[in-house]
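RECORD TYPE: inverse folding
INPUT: structure tokens
STRUCTURE:
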């Protein structure tokens, strides 16, 4: 960390624990600098140090405007769930967030450009290949006894995209498998394990 000239190790450690605890939750520089009472330059420097240490990586917000995308914040993800669980400050199970973290790590290995969307209705992951959006992926990891999909998990798939992109819409589930339709959009429901094994 010496090349970042970080002297306030306590703030750096607290920021790392916070981001590891808040995996998959959208945040931004302004919110973080306010929470930790440090300058914007220090906040950006600390986040850069954490990213380069391979403790965390980030998924940024998707926008057709690069400037807007850079200003819209990011979601932090842990490189390793086991390390995250060891360090994170949590009193309850957060299986859904951890599963999303696993999917983020998987997509990071498979694709060069992965984003999330929060235009009214959030989509956990948007995959861009070349000039086109190829996949929209939402993670819904509920108890296997639950078969009714909450409408909030499907709403993001209906947001129109610019141009003629018709991405594949995928809902990753605990074990529910089907092809459903929501407002005219076909959505493949795939169990997480099957998706990770590419079956």
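DESIGNED SEQUENCE:
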């Amino acid at each position: 960390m010496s090349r970042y000239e970080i002297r306030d190790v306590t703030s750096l450690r607290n920021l790392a624990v916070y981001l590891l605890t808040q995996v998959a939750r959208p945040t931004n520089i302004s919110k973080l600098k306010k929470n930790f009472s440090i300058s914007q330059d220090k906040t950006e420097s600390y986040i850069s140090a954490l990213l380069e240490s391979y403790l965390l990586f980030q998924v940024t917000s998707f926008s057709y405007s690069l400037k807007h995308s850079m200003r819209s914040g990011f979601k932090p993800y842990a490189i390793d769930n086991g390390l995250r669980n060891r360090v994170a400050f949590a009193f309850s199970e957060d299986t859904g967030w951890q599963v999303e973290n696993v999917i983020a790590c998987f997509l990071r290995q498979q694709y060069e450009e992965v984003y999330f969307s929060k235009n009214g209705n959030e989509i956990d992951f948007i995959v861009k290949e070349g000039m086109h959006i190829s996949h929209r992926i939402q993670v819904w990891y509920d108890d296997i006894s639950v078969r009714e999909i909450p409408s909030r998990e499907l709403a993001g798939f209906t947001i129109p995209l610019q141009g003629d992109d018709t991405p594949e819409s995928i809902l990753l589930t605990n074990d529910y498998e089907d092809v459903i339709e929501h407002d005219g959009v076909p959505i493949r429901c795939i169990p997480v394990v099957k998706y990770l094994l590419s079956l």
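NOTES: The chain has eight helices and eight strands.
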